[in-house]
Automatic annotation (TrEMBL):
Natural source organism: Saccharopolyspora thermophila
SUPFAM superfamilies linked to this entry: NTF2-like
Pfam families to which the protein is assigned, alphabetical: SnoaL_2
Protein name: Ketosteroid isomerase
Gene3D superfamilies: 3.10.450.50
Gene Ontology molecular function: isomerase activity
Keywords per UniProt: Isomerase
Keyword flag Isomerase: yes
Amino acid sequence: MDSNADIVRRGYAAFESGNIPEFKSLLAEDVEWEIPREFPYGGVFRGPDAVVELLATIPSYYASQHVEITDFDAFGDELVIVRGRHYGEVKNGTAYDVGFASFFTVRDGRVVRFREYVDPGKAIALLDSMRTEQ
């Protein structure tokens, strides 16, 4: 049986490779996915279909977008924390490089909760540049 960290790794790999059925199979039916509300696409999304729809919209805000994961850490029976950075360019050409920590709760082999936190200073600068596009 996969560890909780392995399940989260599989989710990242499936999504990155475009294997959406595999990605969705790792989400609980009642999954709750939360992106900081400061982002134009932020909020709380419930259910695998809502999560996939959200993730499909995010690239429309960026000219290029990359994720570099630096750490996967498992804590206790359910918690996996992933740390790294998002970097690339928003549509107006402004470069960004924002650190993040994502908290996954994994239960019975599926993600039941996701909450992402970002470096607030860098996120504010990124958000300001996104606002000037509108």
